[in-house]
């Protein structure tokens, strides 16, 4: 099994994969914001929510549905900002996973990743991490 990566490249590939897996799991979990509403614990993420209020027309009151689920449609996501966040975060996770899997393939296939391509991909990951950490939150 030949590799086109140096020792640093192999470490980068495995760390990239771990970061990609962690990011994807975090994206799909509904625990971005935690709180309480109507004396019940609630949480939600960009497109999933747990314990959410609904209007019960038969009793003319708001009741809490104590289960987790995704929004019924893309337009049901509460705000335009959350919809944008869903798309951008989903695309970011997809690209991160693509780069990480390509890097892992470079551990097994010779001449798949050149030194220049590896440096550019690492630089893109670094810049992407820097941009996403401080963007949009006034930091």
From TrEMBL:
Cell inner membrane keyword on record: no
Subcellular location: Membrane
GO terms for cellular component: membrane
Protein topology in the membrane: Multi-pass membrane protein
The entry's keywords: Membrane, Transmembrane, Transmembrane helix
Listed transmembrane segments: 87-109
The protein's name: LHPL6 protein
Species name: Alaudala cheleensis (Asian short-toed lark)
Upper classification of the organism: Eukaryota, Metazoa, Chordata, Craniata, Vertebrata
């Amino acid at each position: 099994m030949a590799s086109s990566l140096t020792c640093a490249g192999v470490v980068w590939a495995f760390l990239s994969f771990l970061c990609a897996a962690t990011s994807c799991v975090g994206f799909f979990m509904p625990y971005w914001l935690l709180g309480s509403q109507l004396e019940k614990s609630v949480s939600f993420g960009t497109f999933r929510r747990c314990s959410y209020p609904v209007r019960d027309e038969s009793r003319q009151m708001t009741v809490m549905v104590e289960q987790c689920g995704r929004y019924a449609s893309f337009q049901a996501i509460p705000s335009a900002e959350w919809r944008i966040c869903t798309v951008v975060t989903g695309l970011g996770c997809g690209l991160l996973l693509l780069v990480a899997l390509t890097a892992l393939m470079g551990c097994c296939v010779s001449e798949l990743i050149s030194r220049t391509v590896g440096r550019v991909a690492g630089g893109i990951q670094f810049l992407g991490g820097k941009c996403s950490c401080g963007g949009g939150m006034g930091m």
